[in-house]
Amino acid sequence: MHSPSSPRHPLSFGDFRAYLLGRLASVLAQYGMMVVLAWQAYNIARETMSTGGASAQLGLIGLAQFLPLFFLTPVTGWVADHFDRRLISRFTLLLLVVASGTLAFATYEGWVSLPLIFGIAAIVGIARAFNGPAYSALAPNLVPREVLPNAIAISSVVWQTGMIAGPALGGYAYAFQPWGAYALASGLFALALLCMLMIGPVPQPPRDTSRHPLRQMIDGFTYVRTNRLVLATITLDLFAVLLAGATALLPVYARDILHVGSEGLGHLAASPGIGAGVTALFFSFRPMRTEVGLKMLGAVILFGIATIVFGSTAFLPRAIAPTVGITALILLGSADMVSVYVRQSLIQLHTPDEMRGRVSSLSQLTISASNELGEAESGFLAALVGPVAAVIGGGIGAILITLIWAKLFPELRLARTFDPPEILPEQRAAESTQEKAQ
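^ that's the sequence the OP posted. Answer follows.
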């Protein structure tokens, strides 16, 4: 409960402001690098391979980033719950500065190659495996509990905005100067590192020394498996976005279907960011408060429809196909923002602090699976059935998955607000009355 003199907004806290700026910079850099890595690898592969063979390289790039997350997830979540989350983030950000700087130098000097790109992609995956849980679990330690829900919502919006806008930034930077795209990513990682150095000491969650670390690592999986609402929100995004991987095939559409080149890739990659940004701005003024589960389900269905429309641009006249594709991607980004806003808020608010690192690591694994592994799936499927069929089929799959999840997990369909289940309606009413009286 607020006292009359306490700040009422998360942005009143300097550490949280530094955290948000650093989070935005790091996510912009991470997802900007992902699209640039894919575009550069595709272009290099196309010099000696067919479209199908080059598309498979996109799958390998996604796999190189996903495998470290897959194997390290139990360890990274436990580390985030047992060590200073600031130090973990600082070290991994420094590693990302070096990795992106190396690619910038290699591209500038002209000796960049597919093996180097794959190697750096794996290093980025390792850094993200440790950085993600520590960063996500740190936010609740920077503000008082009474403003935590708003802080989580703002942090989720910043993260999603960076995830969607990052590819656009990377695409435009690559069109201007290929090596500059990596240099920009390195600079953004350096900014995130500086912001993390500005954050003072934070309270550490209590450490459980009575049980073996392996048992504690398993606790994260057990908690997610037994909390059906958290399980539903995590897995819905996993399977829906895993199937509907339209953005993973943007390089193919930009070069070989829509014929718009690297500049057009920037426009396409920017489109989801526009939709996400407008939606995020709306939520900053009008936070979602009711029927959050149904709105998430509806958003994922809309995501699938937008994916189908984008895939179908291959059948439209070339004069209007890019415009229709951009419009569909704007809608896709808006729907994705709604879904992630709901998911991240529910996960963080329904998870105790001592478990946030492990649960965040599992959430990150599913996000990576839906993005990097989805990129691999889309690339390999495009090599087998063609990119158009892969995109349209993925959109249909996302819609079917959403309908199945609505049936399997009534907890998600019936989730009315972001409040944890222990906060009863009468408690909320009493707190609201007391707060108005202050």
